[in-house]
Amino acid sequence: MTAKNLKATTTLKNGVQMPWFGIGVFKVEEGPELVEAVKTAIKHGYRSIDTAAIYGNEEGVGQGIREGLKEAGIAREDLFVTSKVWNADLGYDSTIAAYEKSLNKLGLEYLDLFLIHWPVEGKYRESWKALETLYKEGRVRAIGVSNFHVHHLEELMKGAEIIPMVNQVEYHPRLTQKELQAFCVEQGIQLEAWSPLMQGQLLDNYVLKEIADKYKKSVAQVILRWDLQNGVVTIPKSTKEHRIVENASVFDFMLTEEDMKRIDGLNQNHRVGPDPDNFDF
Question: Is there a contact between 131 and 161 (Cβ–Cβ < 8 Å)?
Fold first, then answer.
């Protein structure tokens, strides 16, 4: 992992540059707090913003992007914006329509990355064809999936013209997903972590606290650094300016191999979100 700063990027399979680090806005409601969080992230150097149709906040994210770009004096092309098609909109035509709707709400002319949010059995392959169409027409810069296990990826790839460029999954020290990551590396699929801090459940872990003390960093910073050193793109959520700044202050230290292994050892295959093989929404 060679990320040296907040603007550092990984190269996706199609050559598109995706920032290693970004901000997520899951469960952040529409309103001034959301707009300010996006603007604050941009002001402090974030260049990747992750949302989804089901979050119900694409309009606020779009407003934050417009105002943030203007205040920072940077171009739209300098940002990497991701959204996702929700389960109810899976299917070829409905996925195309969902993309249009997301663009309209965000007030953007294109997305940098569009993902299938969950692998709904019997539906995701048709949606993938729609994503391939959007990509081939140059309307989205990269396409991928979210919450896909190895067998979902294998099934998708059987009939796909284009292999997913990204797989965004729940990933943190209690759920290290080694087999999935190895498969993604082998296929050239960039793994991305959602809920990297396990919704705050790891912040009191004694092993992580011990490691954090050693580096004079917070537990959150240690976890996010562990993500990056594992070659995993990460998008922690926060609306508070001091946390947005703190989360991104992870480029001035390196975890030793021994500390990386200690963190790996915390794995319990424990999820805070649904299992992609067994979800009901």
Answer: no
